[in-house]
Structure formats: structure tokens, C-alpha cells
Amino acid sequence: MTYFTKSASPDQVTGWRSPAVLLMIMAGAMQLSFAAWWNLMNNFAVQELHFTGREIGIQQSIREIPGFLSFLAIYLLLLMREQTLAYLSLLMLGVGVAITGYFPTAMGFYVTTLIMSIGFHYYETMAQSLSLQWLPKETAAASMGKIISVGAFAQLVAYGVIFVAWKMFDLSFTTVFAIAGGLTIVVLVFLMMAFPHFREGVPQHKKLILKRRYWLYYALTFMAGARRQIFTVFAGFLMVERFGYDVHEVAGLFLLNGFFNMLLAPKIGRLIVRFGERKALVLEYAGLILVFLSYAFVTNATLAASLYVVDHAFFAIAIAIKTYFQKIADPADIAPTAGVAFTINHIAAVFIPVIFGLIWLVSPAAVFLAGAAMALASLVLATLIPSNPEEGREVHFWYRKPLPQPAE
Description:
Layout: E1 7-8, H1 19-48, H2 53-68, H3 73-76, H4 82-98, H5 106-134, H6 140-168, H7 173-194, E2 197-198, H8 215-241, H9 247-275, H10 277-297, H11 301-313, H12 319-328, H13 334-362, H14 364-382
Parallel strand pairs: 1-2
Helix pairs in contact: 1-4, 1-5, 1-6, 1-7, 2-5, 2-13, 4-5, 4-7, 5-13, 6-9, 6-12, 8-11, 8-13, 8-14, 9-10, 9-11, 10-11, 10-12, 10-14, 13-14
């Protein structure tokens, strides 16, 4: 059985060749290279290329351009299956990471970042779409939690190897980038040989989908993208620039993140199933307000690292945005809306790194205070999610008084 010789219905295959297991292994393959790249990225930029906040902002904006263009994935689906596009994306991610160390210039780093990012973002778009199509609504959040947990385990492997081997074997950036990217490609070959291609359930629209009734999902997605940039770009940069974290120390910090994510993600998925999307997201955003306010004024390296771990622990709750959409969506809208959602998620991500990189030069605290304001806006939006969202019940305007009933 290979991808090229066997097709199967996603709801009829069980065991280790099921779609859920495929999604888990793909998540692990992605993290093997991306986690290593993310671990080394700030140190590579500062120690090898002597980047400041200006250059790191440019590089991160370049990284987000493919995310902004994720809506174009729907046109690629005119030429290939979603599963095929997911595989090709993993290949680009692996290649982009593998060659990064061989181009140790600012322009070289920008170009390899773009290649890696095209693979990463188009893989994420397809993975989200396939998850929402293949996984049952009743248990999707719990299954997504398991997928995140497998990805976190792959992160642990990447961070753990770097943490132990970086100093012990005097590794170079070039070597680690090449090994990490190569591992993703090796796992991809295994996936193509071991799993069939799974047929689509409901045929997906092959055009862009923008519907008024999805507006709250779009708004939550936009704010999540804007807010996440503060963490992904500037929280990590804070550790290296202000507190002087070395590669193996950053790896240790990421190792903690991966460990907690591996343990917490399945539990968070089950809690979302039990308590609903609204309560889960309100909890996340309230916590993030406190975290970003603390980032703005932290002066202790240990406290900053603790905030980083707590911040990352909230990431898995973002599953709730996806399952909220799964419950309100027309099944045929899932693939095109996944591309549109990634574009919306990255509208702010394209300009925030550059603009906030310049703000960083004046006041790093202002960057994190802006992050707290974004979390507050997200909190307000989350309160509009109904307790039981479904088609026709997408938003609950709790602050509106009910209209008076006419007298009989």
C-alpha cells in the first residue's frame, strides 16, 4: 500500500494507517525541521549575521508573506489533491531548512526563510483543512489535541538533541539545519510509502469563500495572527538580545515548552469538548493579558523564561477557534475557508514585525503592551461565541436586550 497505488475512504480505515495517525505523523515531520529552525533562528541571526531589531523584523515579515498568500492554495487544488499539496509543502519545508546554513548572509537568510515558510504555511493550511474534513465533529478537539501532542514530542526530540549535542559535539548551524531538514524529508518518504491517498468526503469548493455569517471566525483569526507575532517574533528575541540566551539555553527553554505542550494539549482538547469553545478562549485571552503585561516590565531572566513557557502553554487552546468554525461551517466551505483564514491570520503578520521592530528600538515594553491590548480585544470577541455554536447560530450578542414580545 502506497500513496500512488491505493485509495481509501477516510471513515473506513482504522488502526495505524488511519487519517488521524497520518495527521499526527505529518505534524511530527513538520516539527522536526521547523522546531530546529525556530530554535536556531534568533541565535543564527544575532551571532552569525549580526541582526538588530530592524533586520529581524524584515526577516519575520518575509516569513509571513506565504501565510498572507495562503488563499492561493485553493487554486493549487485545481491541479492536485489536498493530501498531495500537504506532502509537497512538507518537502519545501525540509529543503528550505536544510539549506539555510549554506547561505550565511542577510539576503541568503531571507531567501531560505521564504522557501521554508512557503512549505510551512501551505502545509498548515492543508493540515487544518484535512483535520476538519477527516475528524468527526464530536471528538475533533480531542483528536487535534493528540495531533498537537505528537508535534510537541517531535519538538522535544529536536530541542533535546540540540540541548545535549550543541556544546558536547561543537555543532555548527549548518550541520543542525541540514540534519533537521533531512529528517523531515525522510519521514515524508515513509508517509508516501505507508499510507494510501484518502478520498475527500464532501467535495470542496474550488473558489474563494467569504461569508458574512463567518465574520466572528474571521475576526478571531485575525486577532490571533496579530497577537501571535508578539510572541513568536519578540518574546524569543527578548531572550537572546536582552538576557543573552545561548543556543543550548534556548533549546532548553523550548524543551520545556514542548514537554508541557505534549502533556497539556490532549487534556486541553478534551476540556474544549467538555466546556465549549467560548469558555476555553476566554481563559486563554485573560491569561495572555497578564503574560504580556508582565513581559513589558520583566527584568529577571528566569522570570522571563517562565513567562515564555506559560505563554506557549496557551497555544493549544487555539484549537477552539478551529472547532468553532467546524461547527458553524458548510462542509463544502472548509478547504477554501482554510486558505482564506490563513491569509486573514497573516494580514497583520506581514507588517507587525517590521513596524514593531522599529518600535522595539525605542521601547521594547511598548511592543508587549500592544500585545496585551490585542489579547483584550480577542477576549471581547470570544464572549460572542454561542455556548453551542452551529449553522444558523454563529454569534451570541449577549449585550443586546431581547426585543419585547407582542401582547397576545
